[in-house]
Structure formats: structure tokens, C-alpha cells
Amino acid sequence: MAMLRNLWRNKAFLFMALPGTIWLILFFYIPVFGNIVAFKNFHYSSGGFFQSLRESPWVGLDNFKFLFSSNNAYLITRNTVLYNVAFIVLGLIFAVFLAIVLSELRSKRMIKIYQTSMLFPYFLSWVIISYFVFAFLSPDKGLMNSILTLFGGEEINWYNEQKYWPFILIILGIWKGVGYNSVIYFASIMGINSDYYEAAMVDGASKWQQIKNITIPQLIPLISILSILSVGNIFRADFGLFYQIPRNSGALYEVTSVLDTYIYNGLTSTGDIGMTAAAGLYQSVVGCILVVLANFIVRKFDEESALF
Amino acid sequence: MKMKKKVPFLLVIMLLIGTVLAGCSLKGNSTVDNSSKDGVTTLLMYQIGDKPENFDVLMENVNKKTEKEIGVRVNLQYIGWGDYEKKMSVIVSSGENYDIAYANNYVTNAQKGAYADLTELFPKYAKEAYDMLDSAYIEGNTVNGKLYAFPVNGNVYAQTMFSFNKQYIDKYNLDISNVKAYKDLGPLLKVIKENETDVMPFSVGQGFRVLPNMDFVLGNGMPFAVDLNGDTSKIINQYDNEQMKENLRIMHQYYNEGYIAKDAATSNTEYPLNSGTWFIRQETQGPYDYGDTLLSTVAEQPIVSKAITDPIKSTAQAQMANFVVSSNSKNKEKAVEFLGLLNSDPDLLNGLIYGEEGNAWEKVGENKVKLLDGYKSNNHMAAWNTGNNKIVYVQDSITDDQIKQRDENIANATSSPILGFTFNTDSVKTEITNISNVMSQYLDGLNTGTLDPDKAIPELNEKLKAAGYEKVREEMQKQFDAFQASKN
Amino acid sequence: MKGGPNYTVKKKKIEHVQVRTFNKKTNIFFNIMVGLFAFSCIFPFLFVIIISFTSETSLLTNGYALWPSEWSIQGYTYLADLKDQIIQSLFITVFVTVIGTFINVAFTSSYAYAISRPNFRYKRFFTIFALITMLFSPGMVPSYIVMTNMLQLKDTVWALILPMALSPFNIIVMRTFFRRQVPESIIESSRIDGASEMRIFTQIVLPLAVPGIATISLFAALGYWNDWFNALLYIQSDNLVPLQYLLMKIQSNIDFMTQNAGLSGNLSGGLAAIPKEATRMAMVVISTLPIACSYPFFQRYFVSGLTIGGVKE
Questions:
Q1: Residue B278 is assigned to a structural domain of this protein
Q2: What's the predicted TM-score (pTM) here?
Q3: Which residues span the membrane (chain A) (predicted)?
Q4: Which pLDDT tens digit goes with each residue over B448-467?
Q5: A48 touches chain C (CB under 8 A)
Q6: Number of domains in chain B
Q7: Any alpha helices (H) in chain C, and if so which ranges?
Q8: Residues of C numbered 109-168 whose beta carbons fall under 8 angstroms of chain A's beta carbons: which are they?
Q9: What domains sit in chain A, N to C, each tagged with a CATH number?
């Protein structure tokens, strides 16, 4: 009885959450059960997918084995995690830096122009970007090699040399996303009450002190929430970046191979639906654990900065 | 204040309502609906490729005939080349209703039960087409003892060829009569390299594969092969084979001499067939290509080819263009009847392959056609994935001799020892995945000559061993031995 | 109006120049820095434009060049042949983007507002309910079944709109904006005055949260404009194909052709049908330019600084 009363009291909020909840059920909670196929050896029955699912035999963790058993497994996981850490940390620093700088520029028109320009990389697909990278790094006609030879250096066969690629990939990954990511921070900064700054100016604070004591603390909740969210994707890599840009060059495997390219290359010959689901589940479970952990830690410091 | 806020707000609401109404009237213009129209059963069929421009006219002609002869209509839906695999696998996995489809991932899906069993239905409902089918097709498409495919009778065997851009052969008076293997190309490539700076001597890019005289159990990207020049009862790793290694060394030498692009392993530069930017390329040809006739037509310039492998009826060729009937289809018999009609009625099929009769072509004699001005590349369907090439009229430029030669070639070609052998991967799925990963690291580098085989192959074999190669090979050999025993 | 009192929200023009900008020298320094970076961002796109105006023969012999040996508008004239399809696709893309953004913002804001309220008893539940969806992915096949079998929406324009109609990420962003930029005191005082929660949401909070709404609208719009995956899965009819999918289809056809290069003779119809390099670049230009230039439209709402003047009427 008490529960009904509580539901009635909160009816306005429940009503507001209703459309979203229905959507989540339809487009997430129902389909997500399909992930059970990760534990089965999928066979078709005449009744459609869910019946086939029910009638397929259980195979326990068999479909997950391929993620751990190869001696590449360690290498790939290491690559994925390290790249993601670089993206999270560096990406954050650059995005916030950019947002702050933009918010302090004098000409509002220039701000708009810069921001519009910085959104362009987001629109270009990795395939198109790979054409340019190729135009730069092509051993025969690439720009980089032309510049190198101009200065008396030697041509480099870029797609065969491993040591440059971590830098190339990190720079490209950040470059593509920083404009887009800085928008949230920029909008947030715009919403900070000017009164704070006026008071600080009155107190004689310098620009840097203002940023350090007003802007950044106001951004902390957003930064922390977004970072916790990124941690949830630490086992997922941007497939386009790691597959298209190095053009799937075998020679670069050891530094460009990440979980998603590994899964793609491995499953092209079998196309096994169970194994694909197992791979996705693996990435999600690890991410989930990390998010819960990170959130728990952040909660101890500041409840508002926590995700939940 | 309130007035000012309300007006733009109202405007926005009206705009939105207007657009929603417009959206509701947005209906797809292709009815994927499978239900019967005025009581006539409509078959839903998925085909790969792009719709021809005069699609509606072509299909009208087809439906007139099918309604008259077998009482069904056909709703043909096209799915693009690049999308087909993804879209079809979702359609099949989700159990969505369809009748006929161009097969994707045939063996795996057949093993999993996605397709209807046609072993009985085929000869019963499509007898004419069945009889015209080369037996290699039936053998090659049998999975676990049953036939699940309705193959298109076409290039039942294929040979790997080196195709030469004739203009350069003529220009430098080159003799290609003795070209039989990779090693014979050297001197020819040298001539082009030295004299033509803008022409790529050997057009090799990402995806190029050195093709020896072997057949492959899981495709030429996986290290499981049968050496047609050696012991054909053993499964081997082709990268351990001395002949293959020799070919790879030759490719590596060509790479170092500059006959192959430096970035070949990662390049997808198109050397268009109809251009002068290439000298030699590797192609596959079969009997219905009538030698270089087809290739030269497509290239709009003369091409001359030399074969480097024997004509073998392989599983890959047998499975090149299969149509399958869904195990969920409610019209299995009618579907097979339709496919039978398509593959045995010359008027019906040629109306699709060449376009509209009278407009794009006219019949000459018993079984030839003459192309008219109305014939364009995008108002007809391709022969290789539509229907029985045997009943397709040939262009009048093909002589009767060539036709006779073609049939002789087909009769003389031998069957691959692994024709019809389908490997059940259930017990070694993990190892196969790992092997696939190892292969993708080395395939392009080795086959384009970028890597030195003497260094790279030992590395490759190390990694294969660690990935469980032996286990898979043993399992495969076991199943193969059982398969060979059952054939005798 | 019946019921409680109204609050007008006065917008005070913010004199940004005085309070929150660099001094002149630092300004120039940072302008140069940001300018260089911004240039590096549009440079590839400029390159795309240049390629789209390069002649095909020049591309064949020299590859991509910053200054092509031969200019031509072939890329665009070829596109003119596809004019009808392109205009139709443009219409679809715009329609889907506009309607989708509106729906997304409506669903997202109301959900986010509810979970941002400390006095919502179930806020933790609903927060986690939405968050879990960011960590796990529903499979492609089950989602396909929900859309086609359950909702019967295959090959309709709603199949392009609904899958992205809610984004948990936007919910989190909006929730942060609601918490930060709407002072609790205002809400408290209006509640004391007897305003209902719905009224508070629509009349008080939403106007204050305009920057947040502008932000998530931007993200939603960009997401919809760029999406081609839903079209790949659900769309069969030509007249419902969005712009990005058109581009992606051409690209995957080309990949397929190059991967299956040995079949050149067989895929004859296919080869002729591939648009040339310049045309593909022209397509990239026309499918990117409209949305990229829409940013200023959204950005203007970020900058609506507000002060509250509580005036009873």
C-alpha cells in the first residue's frame, strides 16, 4: 500500500521518465537477451531467431576461448588498453584546454568560425581520412617522403615501420574527436554565472587564477562523469581508426592490433554469431566492472561528480 | 513578452506537425511485402548487385511468363555488392521470411539448417534444369549428404590466367607463347619497367594471391590445401610447399626489381581494366568466357591471356553462384519450380541477360544474338549469377567452333579431389579463429612479394603452430579420409 | 493564467568582452594557436574539395595532388545524373535529422530532469536503468527482430528515426546541466508557491537549460545526419535512402570489387557502375557541408547567459 502511495506521489516524474523507459525496454532490454547466443552453438530452427536460440545447445564458455587462447591475446589487450588510456587522458586535457581558450577569445565571430572548422574531422569517415593519410605516407608519391627527400633525408616505408604508428594513431584519434568533445565543455563554461568572475576581478584575481579557481572547479563534475563513462569503453576500440588507417598492413600488426580488429579478422572465415556475441559481452563486462569501480571511488570524494 | 514568445513557438509546432504528416506519407517504394496479390502467390527473392535501370520492364516480362506457366509472381529485391553479406546474414539469422536468395556463406548456413533441403525437390520440380547441370555442381554443393543449393550452371571450372594488355605486347614485340608460370614473367616485366614509366608492370595490390595448382578446403586465405601435383589425399599447408615457396621467392624478387608497386600490400589502387596503366594482371577464366572474348569486351581493348593452372572443377567454382530456398519459406515447391523455369526457358532467361528483345538485341539463328544500340551496361542482368549459362544465347561474334571447344573443355576438366568435402568446424572453432588472425597478418605481405619468404614463412609457421594448426589439420585429415572412403 | 504566479525570466546581455576574455596580447597568441589547429581540421576537407574538382585522368596518373595538373567539374556533372536520387536522399536526411532531433531532445530532457531531482524517490533506479545500456550492446540480430517483427517498421522512415531517439549519453549530459545551471532555490520557491512539477519543468527549468538543450540537440543532429548503419539494416526502398548511406554504399561496392579483383570479367556491370574518384569526393562535399555549417545555429544558444529576475505577476 505504501508503495502505491509513493508511486502516486512521484507520478509527475514517473510520467516524465515514461517515454524514455519505453524506448529503453524496446530497444535495449528486450534485444539484449539475444546475447545469450554467446553461450550457445547456434542452429536454425523453423520458428525464427528466438526459437532457434532456445533450441540451440549450450556450450558454456567455449565461444569465449578464442579471446584468451591465442598468444596474441595479451598483446592485443595491452594495445587496446594503452591506446584508450592515452585517448582518455590526452583527449580530456586537449578538449578542456581548447574549450577554455575558446571561451576567452575576444572575437565571438572567430570563436564560431574556429568551432565550425574543428567539427569537420568528426564528419569525415575514417575511410576518407585514410585516403589522406595514404596521400601523406605513401612510399612512392606521398607528401612526407617528398619533404624528407627535399631535406636530404631518406624515404621511409611508412606502412612497414612499426615505431611511428602509436604516435600517428594517437594523434589522429585525438584530432578527430577533440573539436566535438570540446563542445560540451564549452557549453558548460558558457553557463557559468558571470557573477563569480566579476567578484574575482574585483578581488584582483589574474586570468589564470580565475581559470584555476572558477572555471575548472565548475567543470569537475562534467569531467569526472565523462571520464567514468569513457572508462566503460576501455576494451572497445574505434574500428575505423585501427583498421582503415593502417590499411590492415600485416607488418604493423603488433602495434595496431586491438580487440576489435582481432575479432573482425578472426571471425571473417567462420562468421559465427555466438562468438561475435561472446566478444561483445566480454568487452561489456570488463567495462561494466571498471565503471562501477571508478564510480565507487569518485563517490567517496564528491557525490555530485559521480555517475550514479 | 508573452505574445512574442508564443508566435515562433506556434510556428514551430505547425512546422513539426506538417513534417510529421509528410513523413507518414513517406512509404517505401519497393514492396518487400511477401503476401499474395489478388490470390497469386508472390515469391520474395533477394539478388546481389545493383538494379538495372529498366528493372520494372524486365520484371514485368518475367512475371507475365511465370504467372502463365506456373502461377506465381516474383518480387525481386536487390541488395548491393558491398552490403549483401551483412544484410543477408541478418535476414537469415533473424529468421525473416523470404523464398529465394543468392547464397551467402553457403556452407556454414547450410550446416546450421538455414536452407531448405533440395535433394528431392530439385530433380522433381525442376527436372530440365537439373539434367543440364554439370554433376560437379551437385557434388560440390552437397553438405552432410544433402543438396541445399540451386546452382547457376556456368564456369564449372576455372583456371588462373595471366592477362596481358595487348597494346604493349604489340609495341615491344613480346613473345608470350611460353608463359606458364610466375617465373616466366621476369623478362617481360623488365621490358615494360625499363621503357614505360607510367605503366605498372604487374598489377598487384592488397588481396592479391599467388595461386598454385592446388585446391583449398577453406578458401585460399587459410593454410589448408590439397596439392594437385602431389599426393592428393593429404591436407597440407601450402606455405610449406616447395613450389609455392619458390613462387613467393620469385614475387619477392619482382618486388625488389620494382615490377610490383612498393605499397602493394596495402594498396587498393584500381588499375582499371579498360586503361593502359597496367601490363600484366592475374585473372580467373572459365569455359563461358570463351577465351579472352568476354574480358576483351569488358576491357574495351584486346587482352591476351595465358593459363598457369590446370582446369579443375573445384568446390569454390561449384559454389560460385548458388540460389537457396529458405527453410522458412512457405512456397518451397513453387520456388524450385520458378528457378527451374528460369534455368530452362531460353526466352525468359535471355530476356534478362541481354535486355529487351528487339530493343537491345535480336535473335540470330538458333542460339545466337546480335547486340543492338539499345544494349547498355545497366539495362540487363549478368549471366553468371542469374541463370543457366548453357541456354544463354551467345553473341554472334562467338563461332560454333568456340562453342564446341567450350563443351569439350568442360568434359575434359578433372574434378578436384576435395570437391564436395565440407569441413565441420565445430570442434576447432577457436583454433580456426586464431589461425585466421595469424594469416591476415602475413597474407598480403607474402603474396605481394613485400616480405622475404625465407624469413617470413618460418615466422608464420611458428605462429600457426602456437595457434593450434596441427590440431585442426589432423581433424581435417580425419574428416577428409572418411570423405574419401565414402566416395569409393 | 490560472494557478500560481508566473515568473518572467529576464535575459541580461552579458558583456563578455569586459569580464571574461584575454587581454589583447594573449588573445593574439591563442588566436594563432587555435587558428592553426582549426586549419588542420579543415585542411583534409579542403583537399576533398580540390580532388572533387580534379579531372579523372589527372587522378589516374598522379594520384591525389594539392594542385592538380588538370581541373575539371566532371565529378559534379556526373552527380547531376544522379540528381533525383541525391535530392531525395537529402530530403530524407533532413527530415530524419529534424524530427529525430526533436524527439530525442524531448525524450531525453524529460527523463534527465526526472532523474536530476533529489526528491524523485526512484531516481537511482532510473539512472542505472539508463546507464546499463551504455555498457552493454544489444545484438544486431535481436534489435533487427524487434524493429521488423515486433514493430513492423522495416523499410519505413521510422526505422531511421527510432533507433537513435534516445541516447543515454545525452541523458547524462542533460542531467548535469539541470543540476548545475538551475539553482535549487528557484525550484523550491516555485514549489512553495504551488506550481506543479510539470509546470516547473516546462516553464521555469527548460528556459534556463537552453544551453544544455542546444548541446544535446547538436549531438543528436550530428548523430542522425551521419548515420548510415540503420539504413543499411532496415532500408530496402530507394526513396528512403539517406545521404550518408548512399555514400557508404558506393564505398563498400568499391571495396568489394577490389577484394574480388580476379572476377573482373564477371562483374562487368558492376565495374562500369562505380562512380569515379572525383564524383565520390563530390558526394562527400555535398553530404558534409550542410551539417557542418549548421553549428553556428546551435552555438548561439550556448551563449544565452541569463539572470533571474523574480517578478510576480
A1: no
A2: 0.85
A3: 12-32, 81-105, 117-137, 164-187, 216-235, 273-298
A4: 999 999 999 999 999 999 98
A5: yes
A6: 1
A7: 16-19, 24-52, 56-62, 74-81, 83-116, 123-135, 140-145, 158-161, 168-181, 184-192, 197-199, 206-208, 210-226, 229-234, 243-259, 268-273, 277-292, 295-302
A8: 110-111, 113-115, 117, 120-124, 126-139, 141-143, 145-146, 149-151, 162-163, 165-166
A9: 70-268 (1.10.3720.10)
